[in-house]
Amino acid sequence: MRLSAARPALCPFEITVHSGPQAAREALTLLLDALSCLSLGAEEVCVVRLVVAEMLNNIVEHAYPDPHHPGPIHIACHHAPDGLHLAVSDEGLPMPDLQVPLGLPQEIDRPVCDLPEGGFGWFLIRDLAKDLTYRRLAQENRIALRLPVGLPPR
User: Fold this and answer.
1) Contact partners, residue 145, CB within 8 Å, separation at least 6
2) What is the pLDDT of residue 20?
3) Of the candidates 83, 90, 59, the residue with the CA atom closest to the CA atom of residue 151
4) Considering the chain, what percentage of its residues have pLDDT values greater than 90?
5) Contact (Cβ atoms closer than 8 angstroms) between residue 101 and residue 50
6) How many CA atoms lie within 13 A of 142 on its CB side?
7) How far apart are CA 135 and CA 1, in angstroms?
8) Cα(21)–Cα(19) distance, rounded to whole angstroms?
9) pTM of the predicted model, to two decimals?
10) Are the CB atoms for 75 and 55 separated by under 8 Å?
11) Alpha carbon distance 33, 7 (integer Å)
């Protein structure tokens, strides 16, 4: 009989940073440090880094577009058997039409100089994250999602 090694427990935690040029870098550093006890594989760390960086950069750029009026970005995280659950909130501008962008795949079979500047982020987030929801409550944007990382071994 072979026993599977369980992943170490991760206590739920929260991170708050203020929007600005270093917000994504600061929050990612804190998040990945807090997740180190899960011993995520390199690919899992890349998924977390990519999804969270895209979300945070979108918040800094679109929710708080005026760099002279930064605001808080709050991340709550907990780990469960089905993966990493993140709740991200901010007090910035709402998403257009109060919905998460569709994130449709972009055509990339053209010269690099003709590629669109945006449009890739939400496609990646929607492709890598599960159970993605967005709500606007009391002047606050709230995004929840699950990343299927840190799953128990089979």
Assistant:
1) 51, 85, 86, 125, 129, 130, 131, 132, 133
2) 93
3) 83
4) 71
5) no
6) 8
7) 47
8) 7
9) 0.85
10) no
11) 16
